[in-house]
Every structure is written in structure tokens, then in C-alpha cells.
Design a protein that fits this description.
188 residues; alpha/beta; Spore Coat Polysaccharide Biosynthesis Protein SpsA, Chain A; nine-stranded mixed beta sheet; 9 strands; 20% helix; 27% strand
């Protein structure tokens, strides 16, 4: 397995459905998608051709679902997508062409920023959704489950890499400011 994509899910069915309609057709036998349903009992997700893990209780953050995804991932590389974000129809193909370094930085568009990465990402963005990690550099590192915010920053402080590359094409669309999200402060 070349690539595992982990999607922590919490009450974003309509957005996630749209994401999966773009993502699932891109899958092949070298790529897996793992959705970790964080206590929502959203069994409609099982209708898609992806692995869905249903947690019995809500964890209150994205860390536990991401950790469960990491513990179940089989890919040599690990990527993350937030369940209310979007990707391009060539997201997987573009990433697969770059699986040669320890970490791959993704360019993205968002409601507040339009970012093209040429070297390293801006220091203000330590999110995991704009990176693809070689499994070896993650090792036993996991997300701190006591953090509701900045868990990606804390995770990334433990990731040490020697080689990196950047994808200048904007293949990720970040949905900042969605009502009910952790980042707006009115989510779980």
C-alpha cells in the first residue's frame, strides 16, 4: 500500500459526501481511505468504498480519530483530509507522483488564504492536512488527545525529516470558518 488517507469525521455528512464523491473515484489498490467516525454513528458513510471505523463515544477533538486512523493505516505514506474540506479530482495522482521524500508539502486554497508552497509551508500553518508523511518519520508519534486545538502543531514538533518536496499546484481546499467546527470555537 503506497498511501493511506485518514479522515476524522464529526457531523459533516453533506460536506464529507461531496468530498468522497471526488476522492473515491481516484482510489486504486495502492491507496486506502480510512474515515474515523467520532461517535456520530453515521452509518451512511459505510455506503462508500472506503474503510470506516465507528468510535462508540465522541472524543471531543480530532486527535483520537487521527490516532485510530494511524493505528489502522497500511500505507507507506500517510495523508490527512478534514471531513469538511475538499480536494481536486487529481489529488491522489498528484501526490503519488511525489512519493520520494520524507514529507510532501501541499499548496492549498482557503476562504482566507491562497497558498502556493515552493519550499516549506508558512510557519503559521502547522496543520496536518497540508502535508503527506512517510510512515517511517511518524513512527510511534501520535496526536495528543488532551488538545482541542493546535494538535497538528504539537504533532509536527515531533516529526523529524531530512528530505522534502512541495506541490505547487493547489490540490486542497480548506473550509475555514464552518459553523460547528473546532476552529471557530462552536464545535464539539
Amino acid at each position: 500500500m503506497d498511501l493511506s488517507i485518514i479522515i476524522p469525521y464529526y457531523n459533516t455528512y453533506e460536506e464529507t459526501k461531496k468530498l468522497l464523491e471526488i476522492l473515491v473515484p481516484q482510489l486504486n489498490d495502492k491507496v486506502e481511505v480510512i474515515i474515523v467516525d467520532d461517535g456520530c454513528n453515521e452509518y451512511r458513510l459505510d455506503e462508500f468504498n472506503v474503510k470506516v471505523i465507528h468510535l462508540k463515544e465522541n472524543s471531543g477533538n480530532a486527535s483520537r480519530p487521527r490516532n485510530v486512523g494511524l493505528d489502522n493505516a497500511k500505507g507507506n505514506y500517510i495523508g490527512f483530509i478534514d471531513s469538511d474540506d475538499m480536494i481536486t479530482p487529481d489529488y491522489i495522482r498528484t501526490i503519488l507522483k511525489h512519493l520520494k521524500t520524507d514529507i510532501i508539502f501541499l499548496s492549498w486554497k482557503g476562504t482566507k488564504h491562497n497558498v502556493v508552497i515552493y519550499g516549506n509551508p508558512p510557519k503559521w500553518n502547522c496543520s496536518v492536512w497540508c502535508r503527506v508523511y512517510k510512515r517511517e518519520i511518524i513512527g510511534d508519534t501520535r496526536f495528543r488527545e488532551d488538545l482541542k486545538l493546535a494538535e497538528g502543531w504539537e504533532f509536527n514538533t515531533h516529526i523529524k525529516y531530512e528530505t522534502s518536496c512541495a506541490i505547487q499546484k493547489q490540490i486542497y481546499f480548506y473550509n475555514a470558518g464552518r459553523k460547528g467546527s473546532l476552529t471557530t470555537g462552536d464545535g464539539k
